[in-house]
């Protein structure tokens, strides 16, 4: 077990909503999609029933008035669709998930919303909806669950083919997420995730793929795919853990992009090389580095750490020293952005419930299902992401203005690499 179990207090959550609001937001979409899948199954069952004029007899006919159902995640508004039976046979659509006149679902413990996210990550949608709706979800058929998985996989596939010729990114956060899921092709799939910041300061999904976290080839394939779809340049700065194969791939595909090592990952690696009795003081000494107001002060704090710990704990000192310059790259960018650039918290917060699982599910999912589930999880999180602090500073970066210790340098010195127009 890792010695470093306490998350470094480096940045605030990237989500503008709390966990409860985020879960309710995702729950509504999951329930609504499941209802729509039920309706589609009904329409397909009667697709060969025709009127005397040769038209389909059973067709969609709008929605019933929106109503709330009470779930373990709180009140959730849903819209149940209606059908029209033009044959006069009396065919009606009654959702097994939200039966007529049922408003309150069975009460479950407060911990079960976490199981909802676990259900999404494992692909066990029956379990996930049962957590939310209890007995009301018993009628959810395997066909409906399968339809949802297929729908999400198709959405990810279509999104992964989108044109990127007009896309520009100032920053990227990059990580490989070990979920513990098993696929048909390999054990322990790893999600390769890139989240970017656009010129207006908004965050968005850039890439969601799979492969090996430490593999240059896996990351190179992902980056080359972005380039083949029109992405003209990489970001000014990419933030990620130093152990990934991403960095070697980045040098070949987008060599102008600079790298910032994630301080959260680095602190974990350094503290794991120290005895527990030393971790409290060492954590404060490490924080003194990235909290320094200037690069020179950070270098001084860096040297102090190495001097204090190198003799007795050389592995800890070497772990820190090997990424010295890339740990301090954020000083060449606006101070308003430092909170976002020191760590990969934008990804960490999205996948917290997936990453922290320690046991592998017995379920085995297909590659499209695996990627589709991850895609939907990030899609829901994206709806709550806030702009980065100081978005107006991005204009200066894109104009090539250099920054020193977080402040713009108004002189004739060469500035940042301009983002491709």
From TrEMBL:
Which controlled-vocabulary keywords does the entry list?
DNA recombination, DNA-binding, Transposable element, Transposition
GO MF terms listed in the record are: DNA binding; transposase activity
According to the UniProt entry, the coiled-coil residues are: none
The Gene Ontology biological process annotation of the record reads: DNA transposition
Q: Which domain of life is it from?
A: Bacteria
Q: Does the keyword DNA-binding apply?
A: yes
Is DNA-binding set as a keyword in this record? Answer: yes
**So what does this one do?**
Required for the transposition of the insertion element.
Q: What is this protein called?
A: Mutator family transposase
Lineage of producing organism:
Bacteria, Pseudomonadati, Pseudomonadota, Betaproteobacteria, Burkholderiales
């Amino acid at each position: 077990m890792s010695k470093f179990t306490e998350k470094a207090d480096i940045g605030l959550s990237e989500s503008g909503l709390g966990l409860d609001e985020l879960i309710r937001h995702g729950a509504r979409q999951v329930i609504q999609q499941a209802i729509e899948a039920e309706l589609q199954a009904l329409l397909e069952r009667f697709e060969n029933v025709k009127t005397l004029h040769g038209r389909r007899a059973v067709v969609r006919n709008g929605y019933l008035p929106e109503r709330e159902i009470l779930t373990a995640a709180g009140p959730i508004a849903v819209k149940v669709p209606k059908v029209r039976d033009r044959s006069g046979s009396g065919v009606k659509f009654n959702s097994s998930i939200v039966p007529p006149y049922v408003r309150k679902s069975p009460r479950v413990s407060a911990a079960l919303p976490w199981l909802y996210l676990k259900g999404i990550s494992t692909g066990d949608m029956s379990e996930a909806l049962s957590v939310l709706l209890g007995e009301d979800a018993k009628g959810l058929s395997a066909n409906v669950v399968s339809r949802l998985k297929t729908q999400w996989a198709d959405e990810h596939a279509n999104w992964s083919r989108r044109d990127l010729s007009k896309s520009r990114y100032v920053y990227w956060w990059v990580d490989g997420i070990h979920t513990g899921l098993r696929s048909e092709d390999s054990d322990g799939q790893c999600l390769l995730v890139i989240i970017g910041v656009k010129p207006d300061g908004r965050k968005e999904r850039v890439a969601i793929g799979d492969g090996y976290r430490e593999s240059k080839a896996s990351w190179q394939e992902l980056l080359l795919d972005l380039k083949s779809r029109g992405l003209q340049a990489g970001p000014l700065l990419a933030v990620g853990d130093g152990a990934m194969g991403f960095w070697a791939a980045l040098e070949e595909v987008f060599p102008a992009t600079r790298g910032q090592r994630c301080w959260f990952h680095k602190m974990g690696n350094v503290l794991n090389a120290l005895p527990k009795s030393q971790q409290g003081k060492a954590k404060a000494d490490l924080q003194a580095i990235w909290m320094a107001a200037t690069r020179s002060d950070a270098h001084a704090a860096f040297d102090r750490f190495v001097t204090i710990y190198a003799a007795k704990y050389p592995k800890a000192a070497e772990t820190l020293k090997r990424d010295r310059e890339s740990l301090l790259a954020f000083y060449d960018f606006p101070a308003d952005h430092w909170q976002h650039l020191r760590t990969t918290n934008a990804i960490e917060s999205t996948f917290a419930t997936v990453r922290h699982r320690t046991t592998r599910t017995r379920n085995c999912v297909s590659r499209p299902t695996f990627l589709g589930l991850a895609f939907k999880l990030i899609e829901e999180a994206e709806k709550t992401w806030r702009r980065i602090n100081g978005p107006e500073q991005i204009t200066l970066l894109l104009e090539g203005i250099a920054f020193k210790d977080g402040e713009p340098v108004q002189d004739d010195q060469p500035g940042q690499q301009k983002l491709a127009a």
